[in-house]
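Just scan my protein:

——
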Amino acid sequence: MAESPIMNVVPPRSPWRSTHRAVLVCRRAAMVSAAGITIVLAACSGSAGLPGTSVPTSAASSPGTSSTAVPRRIGLVTPTGSDAFGDAVTESIAAQIKAAGADLIRCDPGDDPNLVLDCARRLATEHVDAWIVVRPGDVGAALCDVGPKGVPLIAVAASPLSCQTAGVGADDRQAGLLIGRELGGVPRNSSDCARSTLVIVNDSASASVSTERVAGIRAGFSALCPGAAVRVLDAGTQDRAYDAFRAVFPVLPEGILVAAVNDAAALGVVAATPDGRANQVTVAAIGADQQARCEMTKNPVWLGDAALFPDRYGQVAVPALLKALAGQHIPRNLYIQTTFVTPATLGRYYGTGDCPAK
């Protein structure tokens, strides 16, 4: 029998409660189990300036909830604990919902697509004013059929849904283009290009995303280094990338340029690179999650990453949702600005103090 999703209902703090009491209530949240659903009642509140719907995440004024208005009820379907990127997206969205003073009703389906649909059904019974779904997988029209009706929906890092008000995510082709250009600039001349090999580490398990990223990689790289040979490995996890790159590495010539569609694959490639030939390998990837950033700062093999900034998703998704609730028009597609970061530029965007010592 399939497990039930975890439901969390997070209302804002009542105005007569002190800040200290609110913290205690959050820590001692009442756990109520019914029909396999865990409901957490916590006291939270806040207010925030809200950015517009353009790609940059600078603050601006947007509709929210006043201290006297009935708080909006916003549903959030998101898997937690599955990976660092998804957790950062979820934390960002939850923080922005809290800052807007809205009630957060969160349902965690884990990695089970059937439970994603179960979460959508249960949010429909919660009478939410709007909802957000993060990385729902290939559930397609079924999510629209069973989820809340007639309210705004923001789909995050997902294939387009027929019922969505807007989608928020990375411009995957642009991210691929960035790392393709950086790797294409590594060979110093056309002769070096002819002796180089571009190894693209793909992930067929995320076909739509990977297809766009690979197309960008090819376009960016070929514009600067058109004579190089190209090999594609389908190895989108760290373990698979380690095994695949270790198997192909002995037959590759000098001048190996690796473009990975995600950080997990890049970590596998770096781990599989023999120390004696590390100076012949250059790696770039898409993501720039914490583990990748830490590895980048200590390993000269890693050129850099197209950073996707999962910690900024809430700054785009939640203000857009509130604007839609207020009847304002929002663009159908909203993209998080992507930037290529290197060990030399990481400090402009992230701290590295929590990385293990070199």
About this structure: Residues 10-62, 64-68 have pLDDT under 50 and may be disordered. Residues 172-307 form a domain with the Rossmann fold fold (CATH 3.40.50.2300).
